[in-house]
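hiii so um. not sure if this is the right channel but i have a protein structure encoded as tokens and i wanna go backwards to a sequence. like what aa goes where. can anyone help
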């Protein structure tokens, strides 16, 4: 928080959190231990991270947290709820915290990804691919590998997209209009709106029955090249302040079009191609 003030990062920063601490260890019981800039705690059973996240949001810092990887772990059913750990338990429909689950490349929820919301608070914001991810590993300065699937990878990618959106001067100006404290919630809404407009509600695999969006950056691969035919003009993307509707929502084709950094366009089952100005 001192860095936010010192370097004037309000309205420009994203905090990414790929960890979880059991909620019972996070109760702030002694108000005398409260650091500067944190408002007085309302009760002795207050989540420390929740208090910090609230203060960060007011300073114009967006935050994203992993949903956890306990959904398929036998004997750890209590850890499989989104309420069990902080910081993710501080998410919700009325919270600026973005909480990210793990989906495979086909949009299916990964078996270990936490999704149970015992209070129906809307904690889980969206899914992002966290399976089969190529990333740097600690064995060397130029070593690459694939980490085990998890919500941590999905969260890091989501944080990057949030920072990408903040890097757009026009979008950032809209997010911060009226004060930098407005940015975190508006950025979260923009993520949801763009993802729903581009990929619809829920996943697109046969195993998907949920209504959680799959993350999208709102951009498309330009049509063209040998054997690629433009089917139709894509509908316009809605502005972040306008909720998506049936007129603007499109479902993606179920055929695979990319894998990692490789573009895959099978001749026998090419997906519909849209050209966007």
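sure thing!! here u go:
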């Amino acid at each position: 928080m001192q860095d936010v003030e010192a370097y004037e990062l309000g309205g420009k920063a994203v905090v990414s959190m790929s960890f979880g601490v059991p909620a019972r260890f996070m109760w702030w019981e002694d108000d005398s231990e409260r650091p500067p800039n944190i408002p007085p705690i309302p009760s002795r059973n207050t989540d420390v991270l929740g208090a910090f996240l609230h203060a960060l949001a007011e300073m114009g810092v967006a935050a994203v947290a992993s949903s956890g990887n306990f959904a398929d772990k036998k004997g750890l059913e209590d850890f499989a709820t989104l309420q069990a750990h902080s910081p993710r338990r501080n998410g919700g429909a009325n919270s600026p915290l973005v909480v990210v689950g793990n989906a495979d490349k086909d949009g299916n929820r990964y078996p270990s990804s936490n999704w149970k919301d015992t209070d129906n608070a809307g904690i889980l914001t969206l899914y992002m691919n966290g399976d089969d991810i190529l990333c740097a590993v600690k064995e060397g300065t130029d070593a690459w590998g694939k980490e085990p699937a998890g919500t941590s990878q999905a969260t890091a990618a989501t944080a990057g997209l949030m920072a990408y959106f903040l890097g757009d001067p026009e979008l950032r100006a809209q997010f911060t209009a009226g004060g930098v404290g407005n940015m975190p919630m508006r950025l979260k809404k923009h993520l949801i709106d763009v993802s729903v407009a581009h990929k619809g509600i829920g996943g697109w695999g046969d195993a998907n029955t949920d209504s959680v969006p799959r993350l999208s950056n709102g951009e498309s691969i330009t049509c063209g090249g040998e054997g690629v035919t433009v089917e139709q003009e894509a509908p316009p993307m809605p502005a972040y302040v306008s909720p998506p509707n049936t007129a603007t929502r499109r479902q993606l084709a179920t055929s695979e079009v990319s894998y990692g950094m490789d573009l895959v366009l099978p001749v026998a089952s090419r997906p519909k191609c849209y050209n966007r100005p």
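oh and The CA atoms of residues 234 and 274 lie 5 Å apart.
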